[in-house]
Structures are given as structure tokens and as C-alpha cells.
Amino acid sequence: MHSLGVKCNEFAFPSVFKACTLTNDFRLGKQVHGTVVVTGFENDEFVLNSMVVLYAKCGEIADSTRIFDAIPRRTVVSWNALLNCYVQLFNVIPEKDLIAWNAVISGHSHNGEDVEAVSLFPLMYGEGVGVNQTTLSTVLKSIASLQASHICRQMHALSLKSGFEYNNYIVNGLVDAYGKCGQSEDASRVFKESQTSDLLAFTSMITVYSQDGQGEEALKLYLEMQSQGIKPDAFVYSSLFNACASLSAYEQAKQVHVQVLKLGFIIDIFAGNSLVNSYAKCGSIDDAERAFREIPERSIVSWSAMIGGMAQHGHGRLALQMFNEMLKEGVAPNHITLVSVLCACNHAGLVTDAKRYFSSMEELFSVQPMEEHYACMIDILGRAGKLDEAMELVNTMPYEANAAVWGALLGAARIHKNVDLGSKAAEMLINLEPEKSGTHILLANIYASAGMWDGVAKIRKVMKDSNVKKEPGMSWMEIKDKVHTFIVGDRSHPRGKEIYAKLEELSEPLRKAGYVPMVETDLHDVEEREKAKLLYHHSEKLAVAFGLIATPPGAPIRVKKNLRICLDCHTAIKLVSKIASREIIVRDINRFHHFRDGLCSCGDYW
DNA sequence: TTAGGGTTAG
């Protein structure tokens, strides 16, 4: 082709390099390299990646590395080629020094080969070449990816022994690794004891808090960082938005958003994606969509966050429209996007669409259905009352039914009052997750709705005997930048008297609108009258009452709850939204409920 | 010569 005088473009070069590599024709490969330079394609990343492989295979490690370093986005193939080259070279070095060991360990770590990186460390240590901060921080990063908390502790001890207590790289590495291993207390201890004022260490610690659900701690640390005069960058903000998301702190998210705009970090894709997620989780899907539209180059994560947000808000059809818009833009969905798409169908009751997506996802999008997709599909079928179809899928799927699947079946059994399926699913769940009290409660609900009071009594006894405590329901409501917490029957709030007075004031119009307390499914071992009182003072009702007295008339009220919203509160809040002419948004553990004018966006289907 | 922090679901 070349000798015929036909010009080669950037699409042809990678194939030519690949052919040279496969046939070991390095002389020709180098000639082609010359042509690349002449034709001006030496900056094309596909061309460069294929050259890295060529030079690595012919053992010219220096050239391979030089080209590799210049590529902005490296492919797995070029990583592997260069790494193999280093490993081979490394193996023939008789006396390996510290730098050689570090280079190979970090090569494995960068390449996602964390087990190899971590296992090389003891060999290196045994050689007596010593360790430096590079070794430890590289190994800690792999430990973090592996979530190996036991090894993390050993590396911590070694770091202290080696005198790296105040080294920023090591402090950051330990905070990150402990955090990823789920040991947030250890992360926090290392961070505090180091007394560091390093931006990366602060970012890691803020991230640990936000991923551990300690949103308030994350925000507090961010304030402390600012008071120390440490200038934030875009990394901090993606974690901070997550902290706001986990707190459902809408006002906080808005304030942080303003700062991000001022600092010019809004073009950062991670911060942008977190902002979309944050607004969605804080109850404002409109703000989320505005933020989404402002992202200059939307990634699959941006689309997934937006589609998932719409799904959780019950806007199933809009979520599917968004999905189609994404496909039109040529963005390929991943397994998470498809979970959100199925979830959208689920919340909107779109069974036919769900079946279509589920059965064609592998063919259309090359994504094999995973456990999550099966669990979602079983949930959809179950909710829609297609219990036989749901069971058939359970029996034919290539996975063992897990807690998500049994949970879906238990939920379906509750909605459709199927006592047999309910008790079977509950039994499986109690085996899989004995510590969770929700299972007992759902089963009790099934018995109660079937009028099987002896069953309810039996569960009450089992819970009492096995000391299973109902997880206390808690609700949160944010006013300005303060988050107010409520627990059932709680009178400790400074405006407690007014809150209870408001509920008292609402009781008559509620009764007139048809509200009857649903005392029968309550498992507390108390008198009926006492039960009605407890029910009427559930945390979400207290939070809504507080919202009514603490926000201006007509303002929306946003509440977050740690469990599923209870049926009684759902009914009551629907009526309150009409009586008080307010939009009330409740985020529960599963989804959002937008109450307006006596109705809920979930269509009583949750 | 070798090295550190962030995003989407269930």
C-alpha cells in the first residue's frame, strides 16, 4: 500500500504495528514508526498505544516507556506489554535495588494487579533493600483496592516502625486504605494523629467520612480545612457533594455548588456527576437535570446518575426517555445504567418495558445480566403480582437466590397478601441476614393483613426471645444549614411543644379526611390506645410537622427517613399535603415520595 | 530512576 503511493491514515497504522509485532518484524516496525512521524500522526493515542506494544515486544524498554509516558489514555494492552517487559527485565537483574523493586510493584499496582503488587512486598522486604515512602504508598494503594484490612494494619505498624508517622504520602495512603477497608475509625485516628495540613490527606479523610455515611463529619472537616487556609481542588468537591447526598442536605448542596461555580471547578466531570447525584438525592430532580445539562462532556456516569435519579423519583417514563436520548448520542450503557433502567420500569410499574430491556440487554448492549439485574426483574414481576413468573425466574437464573431476591419476593408477598411465599422468603432471609429486624416486621405485616393474629403474636415472641430489636426509625429535616433529627415520640427538640401542638391541630382535619390509625401491624407490646399515640408520633410525622411550622407557607418540605416509610405515615402525609397545601418530599430507604394535593408520586406502589 | 485523593445501582 505504502509502495503504491497510497497515503496511510491514523486508522491503518495500529494494524500495521500489530502485524509487525505478531511477526516479530521489528525492522519494518521501526520503519513504519518513521512514516508515522513524517505523516504527523505521532500524537494519535491509538497509534502510540500500538507502538508501545511493538517496542516492548522487541525489548526496547526505554523507547517503549518514552512513548508510553506521552499517551494521555493508555490501553490495557499497552500497560500489559510494557509491564511484561519490565517484569522480564526485573527477573534477570541479579542485584535488584530499591528503585527496581518499586518500579515493578507500582507497575503491577497501576495495572490493576493488586494481588501481585502486595505479594511482591514481602519478597522485597526479605531481600533487605529497605523500603521508602514510594514503596509503602504504592503497596497501600493496592491494599485499598483489595480491601485487605488485616494487611493494612500490618503496613501501618511497619510505617510507624520506619518513621513515616508524619509523611504525607503515607498518612494519605493509610487514611485511604483504612477507609476503603471500611475501618473509618482507624482512618480518622491516623489522620488526627498526623496533624497534617496536606490537601490530599484532607481529601481522603473527607471521602472516607462521606462514603461511610458520616456526612456531617465530612462537611465539618471541609470547614476545618478551609480555616487552615488549605485551598481545595475539584477532587474535594466530588466527595463533598456525596456527603450532601447522604445527608439529603439540599441547602448545603446548593451552598457547595455556589463555591464550585466561583472556583471554576464546575467543568470537572467528577464534581459535575456528583452534583447531579447530590441534587437528585436531596429531593430536587429539577436541579439535578439542570446540573446534568450543564456538564460539557457527559460520561456514562452522568447519564446513569440522571436516569437513576429520575427512577428513584418515580419518573419512570422520563428516565426511559433520557435513556433513549443517551443511546441517540452514541453512549453505550453499562451494567449500572441498566440496573437504573430496570429500576425506572419498576417504580413506574412498566412491566412490559422491563421484560423487553431485560431479555435484550445482552444482545443490544453486550451487558450480561448480573445478579442485580435478576433481582430487579424478580422485584418487578413480584410487585406486579406475577408471582409465578417471578418464581420461575428465581429457579432458572444462573445464580443462587441472594438476600436481594428473597427481599423482593417478601415485598411482593406483602403487597399481594401471599402468606405461603411470604413465610418461605422470610425464613430464607432470616437465615441470610439474622441481624435485620425488617424481615420480621414485613412478615408480621403479611400475617396481620391476612388476619392471622396468632402469627403476629408468634413473631412478636420470637423477636423478644431472640432479642431482635426493631431498628429505630429516624427522620431528618434540614432548615437553612442545620439538620434536625427526629425519633418516634421524641420530645427533645427545642420546638417540641409547637411540633406536638401542630400534630394535635392536624388530628381533627385528618380524621375528617378519612384518616384511621393503622394500629394492627404495629409490633410494640402495648395497649391499642398507646399504639395509636406512638403511630401518630412516628419520626416522619414529627419531621413533617416541624417542616410546617419552621418553613414559610407554600415552601416544599423535604424529609429523609432511614427506613421504608410506614403505611400509616404514607396515608397521613398524603392527606397533610392537601390540608396544608404543601408539597412534601420524603426520601425513604428505597425511593422518593412526592406528596402533593392528597396524592403521592409512587402511586401507593412502593 | 519509583509514589498519594474523586463520580453512577442494589
TrEMBL record:
Query: GO biological process: what's one of them?
Result: RNA modification
Q: What does the UniProt keyword field contain?
A: Repeat
Answer whether the UniProt record assigns the keyword Repeat to this protein: yes
**Presence of keyword Repeat:** yes
Signal sequence: where? none
Cited PROSITE patterns: PPR
| InterPro entries reported in the protein's UniProt record | DYW_dom (IPR032867), E2_motif (IPR046849), E_motif (IPR046848), PPR_At4g14850-like_plant (IPR046960), PPR_rpt (IPR002885), TPR-like_helical_dom_sf (IPR011990)
Q: Which residues form the DYW domain?
A: 514-606
- One Pfam match: PPR
Molecular function GO terms recorded: RNA binding; zinc ion binding
Which parts are the PPR repeats?
97-131, 198-232, 268-298, 299-333
In terms of NCBIfam families, this protein maps to: PPR (TIGR00756)
Entry similarity comment: Belongs to the PPR family. PCMP-H subfamily.
Give the matching PANTHER family: DYW DOMAIN-CONTAINING PROTEIN, PENTATRICOPEPTIDE REPEAT-CONTAINING PROTEIN
Name the UniProt record assigns to this protein: DYW domain-containing protein
